[in-house]
């Protein structure tokens, strides 16, 4: 279900589109015109209903924090500078123990 809310500013009005469907997190975006807001909301609802949007909350429930740390260590940490690598490794070790 989409909702469009007008936001009165000092100089103009903007429109915030909110799309909320059961089982999916709220999606919001702000636009300069109401027409653009309605079009975006319609497209987002279509994407959700057709399975084009991944429900990150449901996906996250399938993983443990340990798995997230392991993936971070293998994919992101190697690209860090040596000092950042040292600091983040220290904090990851602290959280794991």
In short:
It contains four helices and three strands, in the order βββαααα.
Model description:
By secondary structure, the chain is α+β, with helices and mostly antiparallel strands. Helix content is 48%, strand content 20%. It has four helices and three strands; from the N terminus they run E-E-E-H-H-H-H. The protein has a three-stranded antiparallel sheet, covered by helices on one side. A hairpin with a 4-residue loop joins strand 1 (2-8) and strand 2 (13-19). The longest helix is centred in the middle third of the chain and has 16 residues, at 34-49. It is elongated. It starts with a strand and ends with a helix. The relative contact order is 0.11.
Helix content: 40-55%
Structural class per helix/strand content? Answer: alpha+beta
Large-scale geometry:
elongated
Poorly predicted runs of 5 or more residues: none
Oligomer: single chain
Number of strands: 3
The average pLDDT score comes to: 91
């Amino acid at each position: 279900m989409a909702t469009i809310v007008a936001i009165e500013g000092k100089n103009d009005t903007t429109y915030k589109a909110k799309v909320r469907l059961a089982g999916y997190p709220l999606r919001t975006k702000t636009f300069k015109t109401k027409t653009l807001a309605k079009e975006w909301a319609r497209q987002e609802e279509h994407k959700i209903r057709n399975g084009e949007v991944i429900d990150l909350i449901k996906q996250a429930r399938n993983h443990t924090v340990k798995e997230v740390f392991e993936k971070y260590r293998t994919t992101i940490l190697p690209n860090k500078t040596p000092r950042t690598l040292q600091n983040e490794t220290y904090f990851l070790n602290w959280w794991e123990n």
